[in-house]
């Protein structure tokens, strides 16, 4: 059996949707818990597939983890296993973020290489380069990234680290590895995403001496003793923005609660260029479409630029906009695979290297399509709302990995979508 969604044309979406904690924050916060012996509690957690998968990785390191609704409790022992389980890590790319905390706590870490995925090759060279500057030897061996503190007494030492690119994952791993290092670490050209700020805040609550969260220069005064904490995850700006795009694409009126609109300043500004209006409301924001959107150009960049995770939504909106849009993908080289599926739905779209050109059409036409990753899946469902006929979106497990209660939330906004369990059509 292969689950799929059946999406039928929708009128203007309307209503309020509550968004919970961010996938791209909670997974790192769970890894950060490794830095303190005892119980750390994380609240406002999204109920998505990735959270129990991350819990399995932490259990393979010797932790006890309880996932109960939107609360995750992690009991971290004094002795940690420094080798993460191959099977658990291979099921969840993001689990590579245990590398930094393990090197910090155990002076050694063996983490299976997550490998590439549908959106790109995703190397770890910047993670390793940063750990080496902190005084760890690091190599790829037997399919794993191995890192081991190499200094006298096998201690890590503070360092000045420049990242070639403001990588989210490298910033997080180096940050977590440096909290126990002797002396001061400065990470320059660091990632500035709100999820990084959320991680910095939790580490500060645990007792770490860090400054510069949200800027491109993070400074860590190492050597602090960290204690467990209770931390609330920030709202998921990518999920919140996905609902905003759905509102604009259908000429709707949707209020998103649980997300800080300032985490989406540029995104909301681009949507107004497409003809929408938005206003901040208590605990979130309200986005109103205005008939058929106007075409605009989109350029993905690290935060505070336009998020690459919303690129499929930008293409889906451009496919039904008035006019021609250029979409430039600067973060992941393989993220235009999505366009092939959009063409199946009748989109007039072509790619050339890291550019895509999309000529808007008044209406798409339904077809069976396949989700290649989380965001592509959501983009195909949004496009299906603007397609004549029944669109079948397959491989929806991808969507479940990043969007809690996706079908229920879309139906509550008036979307005509259903989860179906049937043998694959093809
Ligand atoms: C995080 O991935 C997110 N994942 C991604 O979201 C998001 O797209 C990405 O950041 C950018 O915002 C999680 O947080 C779990 P990067 P990450 O390191 O950390 C290259 C989603 O849909 N690079 O900032 O892997 C890399 O190949 C996912 O929720 C190196 O070359 O992203 C990419 O081209 C998809 N060497 C670019 O940098 C390195 O050592 C950005 O990657 C590290 C990265």
TrEMBL record:
Q: Catalysed reaction(s)?
A: phosphoenolpyruvate + UDP-N-acetyl-alpha-D-glucosamine = UDP-N-acetyl-3-O-(1-carboxyvinyl)-alpha-D-glucosamine + phosphate
Chain residues that bind phosphoenolpyruvate:
23-24
User: Which controlled-vocabulary keywords does the entry list?
Assistant: Cell cycle, Cell division, Cell shape, Cell wall biogenesis/degradation, Cytoplasm, Peptidoglycan synthesis, Transferase
Q: Where in the cell is it found?
A: Cytoplasm
Q: Where is the active site?
A: 117
Entries under CDD domains matching the protein? UdpNAET
Q: Which SUPFAM superfamilies does the entry link to?
A: EPT/RTPC-like
Gene Ontology molecular function: UDP-N-acetylglucosamine 1-carboxyvinyltransferase activity
Q: Report the main location listed first in the record.
A: cytoplasm
Q: Residues that bind UDP-N-acetyl-alpha-D-glucosamine, according to the entry?
A: 93, 309, 331
- Keyword Membrane in annotation: no
The question of whether Cytoplasm is a record keyword is answered with yes
The catalytic activity of this protein is classed by the Enzyme Commission as 2.5.1.7
Which pathway does it take part in? Cell wall biogenesis; peptidoglycan biosynthesis
Residues forming the Enolpyruvate transferase domain are 8-410
Family according to the record:
Belongs to the EPSP synthase family. MurA subfamily.
Which PANTHER family does its entry note? UDP-N-ACETYLGLUCOSAMINE 1-CARBOXYVINYLTRANSFERASE
Q: Its function? A: Cell wall formation. Adds enolpyruvyl to UDP-N-acetylglucosamine.
Q: What is this protein called?
A: UDP-N-acetylglucosamine 1-carboxyvinyltransferase
The uppermost taxa in this organism's lineage are: Bacteria, Bacillati, Actinomycetota, Actinomycetes, Pseudonocardiales
